[in-house]
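Re: Re: ligand-bound prediction request (bumping)

Still looking for help on this. To restate: I need the protein modeled with heme C bound, output as structure tokens. Inputs repeated here so nobody has to scroll up.
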Amino acid sequence: MAAMKTLLPAGLVVLGLAAAVFTSASLLEASAAPAESRIEQSGMELRPAADFANIANTRARSIALFQEAGRVITSPRCLNCHPATERPLQGDDMHPHEPPVKRGAGGMGMPGMRCLTCHGAANFDPGRVPGNPRWLLAPPEMAWAGKSLKQICVQIKDPHLNGGKSMQDLIEHMAHDQLVGWGWNPGAGRTPAPGTQEEFGNLIQAWADAGAQCPTK
Ligand code: HEC
Ligand code: HEC
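Reply:
Sorry for the wait, this slipped through. Here it is.
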């Protein structure tokens, strides 16, 4: 019983029922295409940072590195939680979150519809519910969805918009933050972000080392 409780906090039990209703259609879809084969099909590898060393022009090298890292940044795994509106997005097709939920105070949802009511500390695959101990929405000034890579690049470098992060903080966050890391372990029915978090962190580090230049569009 104690073990059950750890695995299934009250919110998740309620959610189990809710999720069954919300996701029955997507469950069918997911069982037809197991997560593993999706990963193989997508062939989503990241080029290692060392691949870019032969670009002699430092600015061009920096931009190329950010463009490769941008394949992670603009993946549904990141954009769904950095949406343009008050409502998160869901799934590889980035549809609006069902049920409709709003950011609320501190990105944690509205009273009665808190993110943690449904999202547990870990992915809950039977209900297809993604989870993390800190599951909350990125603040409006960190919205990425619908923006160009240039706009996102300029924005994440700006301490007024990125939560007061220095370049070192930003690299650390990309390379080691465990909510960012969820992107490579997103649970059943979702395509992981390309490559690995370590490779992504290395690209961001190399981008910064080459002057943290932003793409021109
Ligand atoms: C569950 C929601 C969620 C997911 C998924 C998520 N983020 Fe975030 N992100 C946040 C929140 C919340 C913040 C605000 C800072 C904090 O509280 O950690 C944030 C902030 C950031 C920042 C700080 C700078 C800025 O301007 O945005 C970066 C960089 C970032 N996230 C990268 C990523 C990347 C890369 C991914 C995908 C691999 C990702 N995030 C996925 C919620 C999320
Ligand atoms: C009533 C339950 C419920 C509440 C409350 C809820 N969610 Fe969800 N959320 C779900 C379910 C279920 C899914 C999975 C849907 C699917 O993929 O079939 C989901 C998926 C997501 C995803 C998609 C992840 C991806 O990349 O596909 C994000 C992002 C998300 N929720 C963010 C939030 C945030 C942020 C909050 C609070 C503001 C929140 N959710 C509140 C039930 C909920």
